[in-house]
Amino acid sequence: MDTQRSKRIRKPPQERRREVLNAAVELIGERGFNGMSVQDVADRVGISKQGVLRYVGSKDNMLAMVYHEYYNAIGSPEEFRASGLPGSGPGAMRFPAYLRFLVQCNAQRRMLVQLFSMLQVESFNPRHPLHEEFARRPEAIWRYYSGFAWEIPQWVGQWQDMRPLVRRAMEIMDGVQLRWLREPAIDLCEEWAAMEDLLFPLPLWEGYR
Hints:
By secondary structure, the protein is mainly alpha-helical. Helix content is 65%, strand content 0%. The chain contains eleven helices and no strands. The protein starts with a helix and ends in a 10-residue tail after the last helix.
């Protein structure tokens, strides 16, 4: 048994780090950040608590790594722009098309969406490590999206005039994803398609979706 344990510990650092963060994603999605411990992560990976801390530093730092490196690393406007999908052209990106792309990405990473939803609720507590992060998230998202060249209908005005609609779209997406995580199951992409018709109705958004 000790020999087997030693062999596990000798895995390349990047591989072991990935195992630790994958275990953290699973446990936070199942129990929430407050309901899991570093020891739980260690038990799931099969190494010691100190072994886990060697890769993540602390429980709070592990949470930040999971959030930034896993959830925020997928489905970005940069990815969409490089995808070659309709509406992703440089200088003429279409925001509804990007949101559709983001939902399709999220539909392939259910555990991470569950993790995000769990953390979002837990972060209402001012003592939560991500409290400030989530409090600033709507403003941060708006600033981030404002760094891209979106093609919008002339009647809307300037990109700055899109701010209320962008906020509502993100709020609705959060709600749709919560419903998707529940039973009975729904198709996330189909559900978002219905929301898209409400947020970006035709013919007003004809040619810009």
